[in-house]
Amino acid sequence: MLELKVKQGARMQIAGRWTAGNVKLLKLQGVLLLFKMGSSQSNLPPGPRTIPILGNLHIMDWKRPYKTMIKLSKEYGNVFRLQMGCQEMVVLTGYETVKEALVNQAEAFAERPLIPIYEDYSKGFGVVFTHGENWRQMRQFSISALRDYGMGKRIVEDKISEECSVLIKTYETFEGKPFDPASILRAASANIIVSFLLGKRFEYEDATLLRLMELVEENLHLAGTPAVLIYNVFPKLGFLLDAKKKIMNNRKEYHEFIQATFLENLKDFDENNQRTFIDAFLVRQKKENKKSTNSYFHNDNLIGLVDNLFGAGMDTTANTLYWTLLLMMKYPEVQRKVQEEITKEIGIRQPRTEDRVKMPYTNAVIHEVQRFADIVPTNLPHATSKDITFKGFFIPKGMYIIPLLTSVLHDESQWEKPHEFYPEHFLDSEGKFVKRDAFMPFSAGQRLCAGETLAKMELFLFITNLLQRFTFQPPSGTSKDDLDLTPVLGLTTPPMPYKTCAVLS
Do 16 and 376 touch, CB atoms closer than 8 A? Predict the structure, then answer.
């Protein structure tokens, strides 16, 4: 029987928990940062004047802080400093600056800062918000295991195509009448990552799947709200904030499901017949525990990985698809051109990944949806792993870094029409698809999204299958001009809820 527990002392050494000790560590890091920055004051990035206690909070758009950051970059340059309460941070804006940090100096900008809500949530486990060697081990394993179970290969393409068929049949049941496609798109996207993790799929109306999606979506929304911003800046106020309590209650319910699921897998586990990502982890756990009691392959990291992969694998892909259908209604001429290319290059057979190379316009539209939708505008936060001189400024080790993705995807020096939906950004004068260096929806560098290859395959197959079968139109009485392109508030930014009519083509 596999060992289900690792000595608590070893586990604490590996990851640590967000306790009073971590609060003290955060305060100590702040003091050290201020000391270092004070000693190099003349060489720090510039920034707006601060006021006691609040720092720069009084000038921020608390709902969409990235908008304030864009404005400040026009005054203080592409590298500038902010102070959110006691938290010092450096904001990087524009393609050239973000690329220099995340790609050219990737190692120096590869850490995550200690942010109260994310430390509370991850407790140092998983891959997205973890640090140091735990992050390296879990990321390396995750990428390897996902590839072993077919990421980017025909077996996964077949699973996505099967899911597309179910999705189409579900849309057909609405018979062209208005419906909100969000939940169904999330369920379809979730089933792809669930096939990696658990080797199964859920029916779209399955109560367990619906609840899991609700927990993930609610937490992603809450993580971007002003209440959580306040908590991250002033952690001692956490007991007053319902948003923080709700996130942690959701986490408890979510992780209880994951725990029960992988224990169920354990009953039928056969290391000579590995079927899923969880199986691969259990095999590695058994191997590593024979070598050392300080293994990173313990159950808390397994739960953290499943949490991270399910949430990331479902949310960003589903939100991109949700934006796609809205934009197809908003720009029917673009939808029509995509459908014409599908008819010409694919016909009535089911689309395959290899079709992408001969469909430049469709490929351009998918890329432009990702650029325009700007799903994670602030990016996930980074931190410096060492003292560094960057663009002529001193940035100390442990500094909170915001590589502002929205400033890259809307960089006026890189895009002809940065604030418009314009598929021609990815087409040359002859109509051929062209790559753009400033296309960074998955971020870049050592914290690049591990599921990028899978996401690209999903987007192409879901979008071509849907537009081959349906034309998406606004409900009767709603014109394309009435469609709202305002993003929802949250860590990730889907469009405002809407209804569509999936009319058979």
Answer: no
